[in-house]
Specification:
The complex is a heterodimer. Chain A is built from 24 helices and twelve strands. By secondary structure, chain A is α/β, with parallel strands linked by helices. In chain A, the strands form three sheets. A six-stranded mixed sheet of chain A has the order 8-9-10-5-11-12, sandwiched between helices. In chain A, strand 9, helix 21 and strand 10 form a beta-alpha-beta unit. In chain B, strands 1-2 form a two-stranded antiparallel sheet. Chain B has a domain at 3-52 and 151-335. The model of chain B has no long low-confidence stretch (mean pLDDT 87). By secondary structure, chain B is mostly helical. Chain B is built from 14 helices and two strands. In chain B, helix 1 (3-34) packs parallel to helix 7 (196-218) and helix 3 (62-84) packs antiparallel against helix 4. Classes of the chains: A alpha/beta, B mainly alpha. At the A-B interface, helix 5, helix 6, helix 11 and helix 13 of A face helix 6, helix 11, helix 13 and helix 14 of B.
Chain lengths: 629, 344
């Protein structure tokens, strides 16, 4: 099953072929449409928040407060799954077990040892993170489906352990968990703890939202189907898989802490595998790739589960968990007919009056990012020595050697199947070579992974465009600047990364401007036609400030004028000291642009020379057109 | 522990391991052909065991009605799809033909169920009822999502597991059942007592493994399944329908599940939700083999059976914990040995 990408739950695969290009949404368009005034747009969330705040003060029946408390706690867990499953393309059925770790830790410490619930919170989080880290390190280096299998196993193990441990009260659990106290105020009442639950839930949601719109967030959004590209931009995708698994576990543990102090007792049953699957149900039904979907999903789940628990046993005349039939069927039907969940459709309906405004252009005058010192023109930049790649018995690249000097454009040409793209993948570290030496800027890069090579100043585009289809062009290009910035996950969640973000966006915009795409900044990358998508990839590679640019068929899908413009840009880059290695089939483009050309055939280097020499060579002619007999 | 206890535990482990081996083979087969991680495999175990138990009591198990309902629903969905594609006239014949076996078996079973047939005949009837559910389940839940990612298919599996477990509760109630032994004889070999049932389990598993091997090596269908497992697109280009490959592999999985259920039901009490844990142990075994090697899965299954029987002796309350935690070192070893970077 090697050809199976880590499953992204997005409706469009990350490297989808272009759909018909929709017209770019300019601010003028938005203003022209009949939309809600700005005060309404800003006011609506605030009004919703106010309503949530005053609700417990009104004479609302206790039942609804309790429901909302549960919805808030469920949403916290589902939020983690949105990040993990909807964005990261990983999943876990063990979230309920993390809820259990949070709940049991605080229940044990506070009821048996009389410690403050706040100590219980800290301890619960610490234990959760340790367990999650072990699980992540064991499973996340392998294909995506081992994590869910491991989480099933771990959820079952934990549940059976708790249920059999004398010290944890076996199936009866722990009783007499005290209420949380905050500034001397007891949160024993449902209406009091309501505020704490929703504070956590909303702060959690905002933190996740902040994270997704940041430097680490763009890397995380690449996990669901563009990991090769992200690695080539210098991202350690393994690290971010671990990070999102830890965040999801932490949110679940937090929910468990609240749960223990709301229920004031804990027993094993709410932390079993069944609940773990139900959390996933919430995330999928609400909208597995949208933060607010977690809340919708939690609400829908809580309400229909309650109804079914009353309705079905009455209907069938006996007691039991019959609601799982409906939940299971609904889950399958949702994945079939509405895989994006309820929130996105709600959002589409709302966007008629509330179109999401394009990102505010607030990066004017940001300090430019530091630029790399370019090697002096004429110095040897890349040395490829007897590079070899075998796939089983097939020799795809057969001891190919060449050198590239700083400040030149080199073309790599050859008939289809000559091994050009494989050579690219070997040089950029996407594929490990079977043999041979690679030196870059005077340093051996043989055997280094793609992200280490990217760090040394090599950047590339792909033959089959690799991008994050549901991010804007600007954001996709900003991912190219990943290595030039440093803000981490915590900083991003707290929104302390804005100055650096401005510098990144300023750089991304200037690269898009350079390539002639300044009118498409805020368009979704997946909506672009193939030509502009390729240009976007070039801008993304440029955004990393490379000293060597590898372009895999940059002109494919471009119109004649666009090709001329691209050639002009590449010439200008060369004049600025950039070196370029490109694979291309358009001979006019290659011959007019390159300084030297390497011709490959059947994995072997045929000849190397100036465009004129290559054009005159009878061997090249034979390779392309065959020989006369 | 002395040698006698140890040998009893070994025997017990091998017996259970034989069942897990069957399930692990089915899981590897389904995953290879369809990329579905088939969590609901265990539900077929419970369906098999409890349908037989119902027949034993002279009831008409609701699984029979369920089979007819599934066949009709699949036919209706096929008809709607054909009508939408404006190919109703052309396809109505084949759709009816496809629905026929399920409905016919169901009607026969309705007729035969109250007759108190001998045990062996009832076991065959149970197999006939549960086996077609596999292909129908593929049609109803998975077929239209065949090209979705492994993750989506996994979540579908979990949904199907939920639905089938809940339906199991409706069909069989919350009470467990235990079936009479197929063969009451027992043989003493030193300190060991082989019961006839143990021999049946081990021999049936061995026979099925050989049968599967012959199927995959010798028959055209088997070769088609293997081709689909290696390369779905390539197989499709060679005229092998990935849809019928999917149905066939699910049908085999249902058959293996039902057979496993029938085989173990005389040795342990089966509840409507017991199948899940049994199926998961098959998974642990399949993961030992990286979800890809049949002999590896069978070997893993024996190991799981042994771990289970020995841990039930030493720490019986933590038996399941030990079995399921044993997956973690295995995963660690696998990830160390072959860190697999996906996405191409």
């Amino acid at each position: 099953m090697s050809a199976e990408p880590t499953a992204a739950m997005k409706a469009t695969p990350a490297s989808s072929s272009p759909s018909s290009p929709s017209s770019p949404v300019s601010s003028a368009d938005v203003a022209a449409r009949a939309t809600a005034p700005a005060w309404a747009r800003r006011g609506a969330p605030i009004a919703l928040l106010l309503a949530l705040a005053v609700l417990p003060l009104l004479p609302v029946p206790e039942f609804w407060i309790t429901q909302l408390n549960y919805i808030g706690m469920f949403a916290l867990v589902a939020l983690g799954l949105v990040l993990l499953t909807g964005v990261g393309g990983l999943t876990s059925f063990g979230q309920a077990a993390f809820v259990g770790v949070g709940a049991y830790t605080t229940a044990l410490l506070s009821s048996r040892y009389g410690l403050s619930p706040w100590i219980g919170l800290a301890a619960g989080i610490a234990i959760t993170l340790c367990i999650a880290l072990v699980l992540a390190l064991i499973t996340l280096r392998m294909s995506g489906h081992y994590l869910p299998l491991a989480t099933i196993a771990w959820a079952l193990s934990l549940n059976f352990s708790i249920a059999n441990m004398e010290s944890l009260g076996k199936y009866d659990g722990l009783l007499g968990v005290p209420a949380i106290e905050l500034f001397g105020l007891s949160l024993a009442d449902g209406r009091a703890i309501y505020y704490l639950i929703w504070l956590f839930a909303i702060v959690g949601a905002i933190a996740v939202r902040n994270l997704l719109d940041s430097r680490p967030g763009r890397a995380i959004r690449a996990l669901g189907g563009a990991t090769v590209m992200a690695e080539s931009m210098g991202v350690s995708t393994f690290r971010y898989k671990v990070v999102i698994f830890l965040i999801a576990a932490l949110l679940a543990s937090l929910s468990g802490w609240l749960f223990a102090h709301v229920q004031r007792t804990v027993n094993p049953s709410p932390f079993g595998l069944k609940m773990g699957i139900e959390y996933l149900f919430m995330a999928v039904v609400g909208g597995v790739s949208s933060v607010w979907g977690a809340f919708i999903g939690a609400g829908v789940f809580k309400i229909i589960e309650d109804q079914l628990k009353e309705l079905l046993p009455a209907l069938l005349g006996s007691n039991g968990n019959f609601e799982i039939i409906v939940l299971g069927v609904v889950l399958v039907l949702m994945l079939k007919y509405a895989p994006r969940g309820l929130w996105p459709s709600l959002q589409t309906a709302l966007s008629r009056w509330w179109p999401a405004p394009p990102r505010a252009r607030d990066w004017e005058g940001a300090t430019p990012l530091a630029a790399r010192a370019k090697p002096p023109a004429g110095a040897v930049l890349l040395q490829v020595d007897r590079l070899r790649k075998q796939f089983g018995g097939l020799v795809a690249v057969n001891d190919v050697s060449f050198e590239l000097r700083a400040g030149e454009i080199m073309g790599l040409i050859g008939p289809n199947g000559a091994g050009k793209s494989t050579t690219f993948n070997l040089v950029s570290g996407v594929l490990p070579a079977t043999g041979g030496e690679l030196r870059f800027a005077g340093e051996s890069i043989t055997g280094l992974p793609a992200r280490q090579i990217a760090r040394r100043g090599m950047s590339r585009t792909f033959q089959h465009v690799k991008m994050i289809a549901d991010m804007t062009v600007l954001e996709n290009v900003a991912l190219g600047g990943y290595l030039r910035a440093h803000s981490g996950t915590a900083k991003a969640m707290l929104r302390l990364d804005r100055a650096e973000e401005k510098r990144l966006f300023a750089e991304a915009e200037s690269q898009l401007r350079r390539i002639g795409m300044q009118d498409h900044l805020h368009e979704l990358a997946g909506n672009l036609a193939l030509g502009p998508q390729r240009l976007m990839e070039i801008a993304r590679a440029l955004c990393s400030d490379p000293s060597l640019l590898l372009l895999d068929e940059p002109a494919a899908g471009l119109r004649h004028k666009e090709k001329q413009a691209l050639a002009a840009v590449l010439r200008q880059l060369r004049a600025e000291g950039m070196s370029i290695l490109l694979v291309e089939h358009d001979m006019d483009f290659v011959m007019g642009l390159t300084d030297r050309i390497v011709v490959m055939e059947f994995g072997t280097k045929l000849i190397e020379g100036s465009p004129a020499e290559v054009q005159a060579s009878p061997e090249v002619r034979a390779a392309y057109l065959g020989t006369e007999h | 522990m002395d040698g006698a206890i140890a040998s009893i535990l070994v025997l017990d482990g091998v017996t259970n391991g034989a069942i897990y081996a069957l399930l692990a083979l089915a899981l590897v087969l389904v995953f290879a052909v369809t990329r579905v991680i088939f969590i609901p495999q265990g539900e077929f175990v419970a369906f098999g065991a409890l349908t037989l138990a119902g027949l034993q009591l002279g009831h008409t198990p609701l699984t029979i009605h369920f089979l007819i309902a599934m066949a009709l629903l699949a036919a209706v969905l096929d008809l709607v799809a054909a009508a939408r594609a404006r190919r109703l006239a052309a396809e109505v014949g084949s759709i009816v033909l496809r629905a026929l076996p399920g409905v016919a078996i169901g009607l026969c079973a309705l007729w035969l169920a109250p007759m108190k047939l001998p045990l062996l005949a009832q076991a065959l009837l149970t197999l006939a009822v549960v086996t077609p559910m596999g292909g129908l389940l593929y049609r109803l839940a998975y077929q239209s999502l065949a090209d979705a990612s492994v993750l989506v298919l996994l979540i579908v599996s979990v949904g199907v597991h939920f639905a089938l477990t809940g339906l199991g509760l409706v069909f069989f109630g919350a009470e467990g059942s235990r079936n009479p032994s197929f063969w009451d004889a027992s043989y003493a070999a030193g300190p060991l007592m082989f019961s006839g049932q143990t021999l049946i389990i081990v021999m049936a598993s061995a026979a099925l493994i050989v049968g599967l091997w012959l199927f995959f090596e010798k028959s055209l269908y088997g070769k088609a399944l293997r081709a689909t497992a290696v390369n779905r697109l390539g197989a499709r280009l060679m005229g092998i329908s990935s849809t019928s490959a999917g149905r066939l592999s699910f049908t085999l999985a249902a058959f293996i599940g039902a057979l496993s259920g029938i085989l173990i039901s005389p040795t342990t009490t089966i509840f409507y939700d017991s199948g899940f844990l049994i199926g998961l142990k098959g998974f642990v075994a399949a993961v030992f083999a990286g979800l890809s090697s049949y002999p590896g899965a069978a070997l893993g299954a024996l190991l799981v059976g042994l771990i289970e029987s020995f841990s039930s002796f030493w720490a019986s309350a933590f038996k399941e914990v030990i079995v399921f935690t044993s997956i973690l070192p295995v995963l660690l070893w696998r990830s160390w040995r072959d860190p697999h970077h996906e996405e191409h």
